[in-house]
Specification:
Number of domains: 2
Largest sheet: 6 strands, antiparallel
Protein name: Apple domain-containing protein
Signal peptide: 1-21
Bound molecules: 2-acetamido-2-deoxy-beta-D-glucopyranose
Number of strands: 15
Number of helices: 8
Distance between the termini: 31 Å
Shape: elongated
Keywords: Signal
Structural class: alpha+beta
Order of helices and strands: HHHHHEEEHEHEEEEEEHEEEEE
Oligomer: single chain
Length: 307
C-alpha cells in the first residue's frame, strides 16, 4: 500500500503539458496579459514580457456582451472536452519492448476477462477501461496478449489471447514482472509469453482541501477571467489545491466560494500554477477558457466550497 502511494506520487509528479495548437485569434485582454506578465516575471522572460505588455492596450471586457462574443469557440472546446475520456493515465501503452513483454503482478489484483483480439488497439483499450469502470474498486487495468496458453487458444469461448486484468491500486512499471515461462501445453511445449502489455490507471488527482468539494477536472479549460463572478487570480508556488483554498478563505476574498487551480503555460516554455477565484459555484460547463494568444490552460480543476 505504501509502495502504491509512492508510485502515485512519482507518476503524478511527471506533469505532461499537452500544448494545444493556438486557435484563438483574440488578443489577450489586460487582465489576462497581467497574468501572463506575472508568469513570465516569475521566470524573468524579458522577451515575452515585452510582447505581453504591448497587448495590454486591449480593453478589459467585463460586460455580458463581450463574454457572448467568445462563446462559439468556447462551446466548441467544451464539446471536445465532454467527448474525451480523460480519467485514465497511460503508464505504458504496450509498444515498449521491455515493459510490453510482461504482465502486471501487483497488489490489489481484482479479476480479469478475455477481450477480443480482432479489434483495433483503441477499441480494445476502450473495452478494457469500460470493464474497469464497471468493476467496483478498479483503479488500474493491464491489457496484454498471452501466447501459448491452451485455455485462451482452445477452451474459452472468446477464442482470443487478449486479456484485461484489473487492480485496485496504482501500479508501478516495476510491477511488470510476469513474463510467462510456463509450459502450459505440456512438458516439451513452447512456454507461454506476453506481448503488447499496456497499463492504464485512474488519475484521482490531488487531495481535495477540507471544506471544499471537487467540481471538475483535470481539464484543459478553466473558468474564464470574464465570468461575472470572477474575483481575483494569484500565482502559487506548487500545484496544490490547498494553497488556493487558503487564498479563497482569506480576509481579502470573503465572497469567494469557488476556485479553479490550473497550469498557465506560456508558449509551452514558461509555466506557473494559477488560482482563480469566483463568488459563485461553477461546474464543468462553465470552464470554457482554454487558449488565448500565448496563454494555454492545462491541468484545470475546479473546487466549490462545501461548508
Ligand atoms: C522566453 O520566451 C521566448 C519565446 O517563446 C523563448 O524563445 C525563450 O527561450 C524564453 N526564455 C526563457 C528563459 O524561458
Ligand atoms: C505508444 O507510445 C509510443 C512512444 O511514446 C508511441 O510512439 C506510440 O505511437 C504509442 N502507441 C499507441 C498505440 O498509442
Ligand atoms: C487471437 O487469439 C486466438 C486465441 O489465442 C489466436 O488463435 C489468434 O491467432 C489471435 N489473433 C490475433 C490477431 O492475435
Ligand atoms: C477554508 O474554509 C473552510 C470552510 O470554512 C474550512 O473548512 C477549511 O478548513 C479552510 N481551509 C483552509 C486551508 O483555510
Ligand atoms: C490583503 O490584501 C492586502 C493588500 O493587497 C495585503 O497587504 C494583505 O496581505 C492581504 N491579506 C491576506 C490575508 O492575504
Amino acid at each position: 500500500m505504501k509502495l502504491s502511494l509512492l508510485c502515485l506520487g512519482l507518476v503524478a509528479a511527471v506533469c505532461s503539458l499537452s500544448a494545444k495548437a493556438d486557435t484563438s485569434t483574440r488578443a489577450l485582454s489586460s487582465v489576462e496579459a497581467a497574468l501572463v506578465a506575472a508568469v513570465l516575471n516569475l521566470q524573468s522572460n524579458t522577451t515575452l514580457l515585452a510582447t505581453a505588455a504591448s497587448t495590454t492596450s486591449a480593453s478589459t471586457p467585463t460586460s455580458a456582451s463581450s463574454t457572448a462574443s467568445l462563446s462559439r469557440r468556447e462551446r466548441y472546446n467544451l464539446g471536445n472536452i465532454l467527448a474525451k475520456r480523460s480519467d485514465y493515465v497511460t503508464l505504458t501503452n504496450g509498444t515498449n519492448p521491455i515493459d510490453g513483454s510482461a504482465a502486471l503482478k501487483a497488489p490489489g489484483y481484482l479479476t480479469y476477462k478475455v477481450i477480443s483480439n480482432t479489434t483495433t488497439y483503441s477499441a480494445a483499450k476502450a473495452a478494457c477501461l469500460n470493464y474497469c469502470d464497471s468493476t467496483k474498486g478498479c483503479i488500474a487495468a493491464n491489457m496484454y496478449q498471452e501466447i501459448n496458453n491452451p485455455l485462451l487458444d482452445l477452451v474459452f469461448s472468446e477464442k482470443s489471447n487478449r486479456k484485461c486484468a484489473l487492480f485496485s491500486t496504482v501500479p508501478c512499471l516495476s510491477g511488470l514482472t510476469n513474463r510467462g515461462g510456463q509450459r502450459l501445453y505440456g512438458n516439451n511445449s513452447p512456454a507461454n509469453y506476453i506481448i503488447n502489455s499496456a497499463v492504464f490507471y485512474k488519475d484521482n488527482g490531488p487531495a481535495t482541501p477540507p471544506g471544499y468539494a471537487a467540481s471538475y477536472g483535470p481539464s484543459t479549460e478553466a473558468v474564464s477571467l470574464f465570468d461575472s463572478s470572477f474575483l481575483d487570480w494569484q500565482l502559487v508556488p506548487s500545484y496544490d489545491p490547498a494553497l488556493c483554498a487558503n487564498i479563497c478563505n482569506d480576509s481579502n476574498h470573503t465572497s469567494c466560494v469557488f476556485f479553479d487551480i490550473w497550469t498557465a503555460d506560456i508558449q509551452s516554455r514558461n509555466t506557473a500554477t494559477v488560482c482563480t477565484l469566483y463568488s459563485a459555484a461553477k461546474t464543468a460547463s462553465d470552464a470554457t477558457m482554454s487558449n488565448v494568444d500565448v496563454l494555454i490552460v492545462t491541468n484545470s480543476r475546479g473546487y466549490s466550497r462545501s461548508t
